Automatic annotation (TrEMBL):
Organism: Frankliniella occidentalis (Western flower thrips)
Protein name: Protein krueppel
Family per similarity comment: Belongs to the krueppel C2H2-type zinc-finger protein family.
InterPro entries assigned: Znf_C2H2_sf, Znf_C2H2_type
Matches recorded under SUPFAM superfamilies: beta-beta-alpha zinc fingers
Length: 584
């Protein structure tokens, strides 16, 4: 290779020798060329001498300005030889090529997740460290990535820099503009030879074709579930590691997929990029538009049928989730207590029982709830609404689950059986709670007194003994209760309602548990056994009372003479003796 000047030759020779004689006085980085050092020093001084003549954005290097100008002139000189997609920089093309080769050279040292670009790995590592280095100067909210911060800032500035060239509609995010443009172009040049479905990209068609071939080349190393494309596997892995990298800049809600975040953001911005060409009604998602279009075409919605129970579901995803009821598959595991769930949403709600987080607040009484359905059910205690009616006895319920359980009191159906004592249950959750009487497991611990409980509900009730909170008030006598259920039972003392009747002796009870206990007087069943003397009791409270004979515990004290008793019944009988003697 020949050079006209000796200094140019000297500079070139350094590419062979590796010599870097120019050193930065600030950070001691070394460079082969004096010009490269000059450019580098600008990073320390903050000087940005190169300004864009279109938008006044400034750059440290002339190369940075050159690249930026392509966003204005649309120049994309680097083309992919596989799918002919064009890019503004060679680096972006190199990254894109990895989508074809499948190469993921950047690996997380914590969970071994792999990434195509180093920036994605850096962002991912923050899910482990909790680092959020990008702070908004207007509201102090912090973010894991600069792009999330940039998107968030537009909430304050109301900036919508992405404009549709067809209808001049503007958008806050480039992704939303891309989605919107498809409503104008409808461009889908790649067609499936099996079902005639069309795609805007060759890669989309290639992945789709696997539905027909059944090919699922991407396998989860944790549970061995297989996927048709790497993106599906990547999203699935988050169900194991709990990663939810996409955060809403308005309400802190996090998402597993960027598409879910984009959809959610529209609930804040009111953006509806999908427009019906027939009646010009706008929608926030393509699927909602697709459903709406059927009202014009008369086309019927596709139905996915369960091969086990013939239930019909609207989407293949809904069918997949439904099938877990039959297979018992529970891929989502709690990292605290290792309980497993069929749905990621159920795991999310469950995790709040460990963290104590209650994001849903009642607008009437300020009580907080860990799930939106818990809040909905609670609100019905204020409104008195009971929309679910039993077709046998016309009894009404505030919850569909309550009605479902009640119906089994008519049918007598109890499909869930304890493997230890053969006791049967109408629902799976009472069986789970019951099993803890055999194992002695108490996973819910009070943070105030270290007492442990078998269920989160029992812990919740117990916590109210510390706070003294009684949010449920009787409208008749103004007595207050810690639980909605206690209030409901109390109201029966005013109405005289006793809806639970014994089929043997016709005795009536206000509570199903009262009837359940009473039935044992007929059956002779005594499922609670003392570990000290083998005595059996018909109720857990009876066993607790009996155990005090062995422990010597006497928690009930006479208010007249301070004598102590092991049972409330004994204490009450004793008080009557004072009354009869006239000492009270």
């Amino acid at each position: 290779m020949a050079f006209r000047r000796s200094d140019t030759l000297n500079n070139h020779l350094r590419t062979h020798t590796g010599e870097k004689p120019f050193e930065c006085v600030v950070c001691h980085a070394k460079f082969a060329l004096s010009g490269a050092l000059r450019d580098h020093l600008l990073r320390h001084t903050g000087e940005k001498p190169y300004a864009c003549t279109v938008c006044d954005k400034r750059f440290t290097l002339s190369g940075g300005l050159k690249l930026h100008l392509r966003t204005h002139n649309g120049e994309k000189p680097f083309e992919c030889t596989e799918c002919h997609k064009a890019f503004g920089t060679y680096g972006t093309l190199s990254t894109h090529l990895r989508t074809h080769t499948g190469e993921k050279p950047f690996e997380c040292v914590v969970c071994h997740a792999k990434f195509t670009v180093s920036g994605a790995l850096r962002s991912h590592l923050r899910t482990h460290t909790g680092e959020r280095p990008y702070a908004c100067t207007l509201c102090d909210k912090t973010f894991t990535t600069s792009s999330n911060l940039k998107t968030h800032r537009r909430i304050h500035t109301k900036e919508k820099p992405f404009e549709c060239t067809v209808c001049q509609k503007t958008f806050a995010q480039s992704g939303t503009l891309r989605s919107h443009l498809l409503t104008h172009t409808g461009e889908k040049s790649f067609e499936c030879s099996v079902c005639d479905k069309t795609f805007s990209r060759a890669s989309g068609l290639r992945i789709h074709f696997r539905i027909h071939t059944g090919e699922k080349p991407h396998e989860c190393t944790v549970c061995h579930q297989r996927f048709t494309h790497s993106g599906g596997l990547k999203v699935h892995l988050r169900t194991h590691n709990g990663e939810r990298p996409f955060e809403c800049s308005l309400c802190d809600k996090t998402f597993v997929q960027i598409g879910h975040l984009q959809l959610h953001l529209r609930s804040h911005t009111g953006e509806k990029p999908y427009e019906c060409t027939e009646c010009h009604k706008a929608f926030d998602s393509s699927s909602t538009l697709k459903s709406h279009l059927r009202t014009h075409t008369g086309e019927k919605c596709a139905v996915f049928e369960c091969t086990v129970c013939q239930s019909k579901l609207p989407t293949s995803y809904a069918l997949r989730l439904h099938l877990r009821k039959h297979t018992g598959e529970k891929p989502h595991e709690c990292t605290v207590c290792h309980k497993r769930f069929a749905h990621s949403a159920h795991l999310r709600v469950h995790l709040r029982s460990h963290t104590g987080e209650k994001p849903y607040e009642c607008p009437m009484c300020d009580t907080k709830w860990s799930s939106s359905c818990g809040l909905r059910e609670h609100i019905q205690t204020h409104s008195g609404e009971r929309p679910f009616k039993c077709t046998v006895c016309d009894k009404k319920f505030s919850r569909s689950g309550g009605l479902r359980v009640h119906v089994q009191s008519h049918t007598g159906e109890k499909p869930y059986q304890c493997t230890e004592c053969d006791k049967e249950f109408a629902q799976p959750w009472p069986l789970q709670v019951h099993l803890r009487t055999h194992t002695g497991e108490k996973t819910y611990k009070c943070t105030l007194c270290d007492k442990k409980w078998a269920t989160s509900g029992r812990l919740k009730i117990h916590l109210q003994t510390h706070t003294g909170e009684r949010p449920f008030e009787c409208t008749v006598c103004h007595k207050q209760f810690a639980r909605a259920e206690s209030l409901r039972i109390h109201l029966m003392s005013h109405t005289g309602e006793r809806p639970y009747q014994c089929t043997v002796c016709n005795d009536e009870f206000a509570q199903s548990s009262g009837l359940h206990l009473h039935l044992r007087t007929h059956t002779g069943e005594k499922p609670y056994e003392c570990t000290e003397c083998d005595r059996k009791c018909s109720s857990s409270s009876g066993l607790r009372e009996h155990l005090r004979i062995h422990t010597g515990e006497k928690p009930y004290k006479c208010s007249v003479c301070d004598k102590k008793f092991s049972s409330s019944k004994g204490c009450r009988s004793h008080l009557r003796a004072h009354l009869n003697e006239g000492t009270v």
